[in-house]
Task: structure prediction
Amino acid sequence: MLRKESELEFGVAIEKLSANDGNLTALRFEIDWEHLQPFSSIQIQQLVVALEHNTNLKSINLAGCGLEKLSNSDFEKLFAALNTHQGIESIICCEITDKQLAIMVPILNKPLKYFELQINENLWGDAVTNLVTVLKNVKLKEFRGRRNASSQIAAKFAEWLKDKDCTLESLDFQSGSISNYGAVALAEALNTNISLKRLNLFNNSIGDEAAMALAKMLKINKTLESLNIGLNDFKCLAGIQFAHALKFNKNLVELLIANVPGIGKAFARMLYKNTTLRKLSLKSCTLGNTNLFLKVIKTNSTLKSLNLGRNEIPFKLTAKYAEALAQNTTLEEFELDSNILKDEIGIDVAAFGLMLRNNTTLKLLNLSSNNIGDKGAIVISEGVKLNSTLAELNLEDNVIGHKGAHAIAAAFKTRPLKRLTLWDNKFKNSGYQALHSLLKYNPALLELDVDIPNNREIDKMNSTEDKNEAYRQKYRDQFFPRTIQDTTGMNLDVCSVIKDYHEFESYTLEPEILSPRSKKKLEAKPNEQDNLESKEEAKYTVPKQQYFLRSTKQKLNAAENKEESCSESKPKKPRIK
Result:
């Protein structure tokens, strides 16, 4: 399993490695991804020397370090140092050339738990054989081949899986192109394999033939615990075969299928008999009016996680799902995202708010992309206040404004929460400030996922007050001088001189600028968003009118000048004939 990595600049990383820092167990180098530069020969030599003095490092991430551009001698030095290091168990790389794989074969032979490689599109022939040979030599347990995994690579791994001495426990070929040929080879190998526990074939162009071979394998295999075959090309009949296989399988704990319409009823019936499955994802499977899952949620006592996102469940039926969740006592994760039909509200928010008050087991709730708005966010927040178990909440892309943000911030201000996701909503500045305060007041919050827009985006989405903030700041000193006395020493007052000024709707005045008389005259109150801040930082708002400071003497002089100008008329020039 991957460790939590410490991302460090190269120089700092070398210092900590050389000092054998006990806190540095998983290293990732800080990379400028916009201006990628491979490690130089000097940097490789420094890293090799630092590794010789270190014994605590367990995992090293070399992604972005330009391994494929290193010279053969530098590459050999680096992996020789990694091989002799006493503690390293995990290595993560980007692309590696064919020649570099050939270099690794005689060098890398120490046991490893995890190896990750971004597979090169041109990886073929002897290079694939060398890759599998290297993984055999290190007695690898987990392999992740990111992208571009071909059918030949899958076939080579299938040969390794048939080996009685195979140590591989996890195989990840996500977003590859192993197609039917590679998937069938893996299915045949898993009929006899006793080591592999996790297999990820997500998005690999797998058709009906290979899907049926994998489903048949599940009836025989006794060790596989997790299978991800989402977003492939097989249809409903092949998908139903997985549901039939799980009626007999007693070891699979996790199954993820996506984009296979029409399989809902078969899987709902399967859950009545299966007692081992803990996690099921049927995203984008067009469940529609399927009522069978309601009974499953109420009666199943083994399922811990259920994902029914993007299934076009009718609005009225979502309320029944919420009622079923209120009665369930075992489900810990429930996802019903992207359930919008014809741009309307995707779920019955009131029912889910009531469910949160009564449910005592749910730890993760995903209601993203359901257009619930401020009212929905407020209802969910009220339910959260009375819920003691929810640890992760996802309300991403729900058209939530600053009112909903304030409600969410108030609900989670003191309540324990590990992760809150609110990407792509319609918050204003006050909403962002309220959510940011959660990091201060809620020490249990580990992750707050909010997209903070730049100034231009804020200007576009905020009210007229926020749009003209820069303009007001430019002329702030003109309208509101920082001093509270003029050159004559007379007290300054605030009086209205500009009305119906279309660019100004409100203005915030700092307390130290106004005289006591002005404060009493305006009778201003702090804004709602400032209630979260201290009283010393509170600002007073004067709505719909603009003011500037003038002395009493200046007012009198202005009035006298006006009277004189009205009484004295200019003589007309004589007309010359």
Remarks:
- The chain has a mean pLDDT of 80.
- The CA atoms of residues 191 and 221 lie 5 Å apart.
- The radius of gyration is 33 Å.
- The longest strand covers residues 492-498.
